[in-house]
Design a protein that fits this description.
The complex is a heterodimer. By secondary structure, chain A is mainly alpha-helical. Helix content of chain A is about 50%, strand content about 10%. Chain A contains eleven helices and five strands. Helix content of chain B is about 40%, strand content about 20%. Chain B has an eight-stranded parallel barrel, surrounded by four helices. Classes of the chains: A mainly alpha, B alpha/beta.
């Protein structure tokens, strides 16, 4: 059997689609071809599950080891790794969870997973360049509404109707998980994900500020972002919000 | 930054250990007494962030080798250009003393196993693998080391012994070898060959690095099989085989590999010291 065909049969066997490869495998030293393939099938599932749990530790903890392993296997069948770099396998996981638990008690898993993936992306994003705050001082007052900002590559925003950051925080101290009620009554949370010198940082922001940040991140000018925030909170203080952005190091550049 | 084709950093003398994320901070704070560090290339493919910064800081103080686990060079499907681009970028950032990959395959039909799968040892497979090794060496502008992998099966159509396949790969591609002594022992037990005979077949001058790791004995239908787990100390039989490898291949840089159930850093440092003491 030629190399491409043999490898196709091998992968098909790992995914339980065919056992044709077994005719090519020596079944000696007391272990048959099927038993030998089973070792590789186990390694495929265990390796994938372990890597996924490293990317989504809170989902793994919420599920428990056995259920997470089952969930990872289902997910792997639908979304096999498409790269030699395992770090990419988690990208479709939040969307998968959204379909899998569309309604019901675990619908919030997708949003928690989205937060964990945003954190993962923030950890791996390109290093930022420091923002020159002085550029803000040179902008004429009448030009301020037209200002647009470029953000550091690690900045992400995640919103949920569930308290996703509270759930995430409850799982950060090993051994003392304080259960968080994911019930809708517990309230929505708006989360800013960024990277500090120590690593990714997850912070709660108010709804108006979140909307303002989301507008700016989309590339909208400051004036338009401000109007959208004011529609949510008439007392939104844009000067304070700008100061917080600079202090958090979110901006890369401003342009008029 | 260095450019492809620049002379690699000099090889270390004393044994090294694998650089793993949970140890990043402690390694930089305590500066353990080891000869070098080996990093899994794919773990540092990120555009930026803490892991890459840690590796570059380690590189300031110790020789570093980059060890790839994901290219699956023996796969018949296309070589992943994006993977190659990231590896090339990392090699330029780090200027490692060695760049290594595995003599294995890993994907077909767009599905990646992220495992080190055994090659069918045919002339056809050899030509394919040697071609891919050549592409990798051309892209990096330097010789790479290919490592023998542990395996739990052999294909019926083998035209080479395992060591004979590696020797032919060296001859055909001009690569060097990373000899994993634990993998030789695991395969010798699993497939019933003599490890010393395996060493005899290798081109001794091509062996530039040695790996040591722990493995477990598992059971399939009541029959024992050795599984390469990298989750425990090197076993006595592998230490004995290592002593023989040193006599044959000289004092090439040795690495203690430990990936799963990672122990405290000191345990790894002690294993590296033990390797240094083998005559």
């Amino acid at each position: 059997m030629k190399l491409p065909e043999l490898q196709q049969h091998f992968i098909a066997s790992l995914y339980g689609e065919s056992s044709d490869i077994e005719a090519q495998v020596r079944g000696d030293h007391g272990i048959g071809a099927a038993g030998r393939m089973a070792i590789y099938r186990y390694n495929l599932q265990a390796g994938f599950g372990k890597a996924l749990a490293l990317e989504f530790p809170v989902i793994a903890a919420l599920c428990g080891a056995d259920y997470f392993a089952r969930l990872a296997r289902e997910f792997q069948l639908a979304h096999p790794s498409t790269s030699g770099d395992l770090h990419h396998i988690g990208a479709p996981f939040p969307r998968y969870l959204r379909q899998r638990f569309e309604s019901g008690d675990y619908a919030y898993f997708a949003d928690v997973a989205e937060l964990e993936w945003a954190r993962e992306e923030a950890a791996r994003a390109a290093d930022g360049v420091p923002f020159d705050v002085g550029t803000l001082g040179t902008v004429a007052p009448e030009d301020t509404p037209a200002l647009r900002f470029a953000f550091q590559p690690a900045v992400r925003l995640v919103v949920s109707r569930w308290p996703i950051l509270s759930i995430w925080e409850a799982h950060q101290a090993p051994g003392e998980v304080r259960p968080v009620d994911p019930g809708a009554s517990a309230g929505a949370e708006h989360v800013l994900v960024r990277r500090a010198a120590t690593g990714p940082v997850l912070e709660r922001v108010g709804e108006a500020e979140f909307s303002w940040l989301a507008s700016l991140l989309r590339g909208a000018p400051l004036g338009e972002a401000f109007d959208a925030a004011l529609a949510i909170d008439a007392a939104f203080d844009v000067a304070m919000a700008l100061q917080r952005c600079v202090a958090r190091g979110l901006f890369r550049a401003a342009c008029g | 930054m260095t450019t492809p084709g620049q002379a690699p950093a000099p090889a270390p003398v004393r044994a090294g250990i694998g650089l793993r994320a949970p140890h990043h901070r402690e390694v930089l704070e305590r500066a353990p007494d080891v000869g070098w560090f080996e990093a899994h290339s794919e773990n540092y493919f990120a555009d930026g962030g803490g892991a890459v910064a840690a590796l570059l800081a380690v590189r300031e103080r110790w020789p570093v080798a980059l060890h790839g686990v994901g290219l699956g060079l023996g796969s018949a499907g296309p070589l992943d250009r994006e993977h190659l681009r990231k590896l090339t970028r990392l090699v330029a950032r780090v200027n490692p003393w060695a760049v290594s990959e595995h003599a294995c395959w890993g994907h077909a039909g767009g599905r990646h196993t992220n495992d080190l799968l055994p090659m069918p040892r045919t002339a056809e497979a050899l030509r394919h693998l040697a071609g891919r090794v050549g592409e990798l060496q051309d892209a990096l502008g330097r010789q790479v080391l290919l490592e023998n992998v542990s395996s739990y099966l052999e294909f019926r159509n083998a035209e080479f012994s395992e060591a004979g396949f590696l020797a032919a790969l060296v001859a055909e591609s001009g690569c060097a070898l990373l000899l994993d002594v634990n993998n030789v022992y695991v395969n010798a037990c699993n497939h019933g060959f003599d490890a010393e005979g395996y060493f005899d077949e290798l081109p001794a001058a091509a062996v530039r690095e040695i790996h040591l790791a722990g493995h477990e004995v598992s059971e399939v239908g009541g029959v024992g099989i050795r599984i390469d787990t990298h989750d425990r100390p090197v076993c006595d039989a592998v230490w004995t085989l290592y002593a023989s490898a040193r006599r044959r291949f000289g004092r090439v840089p040795t690495l203690i590999e430990w990936d799963a159930t990672l122990p405290p850093l000191d345990v790894l440092v002690a294993e590296a010291r033990r390797a240094d003491e083998v005559a």
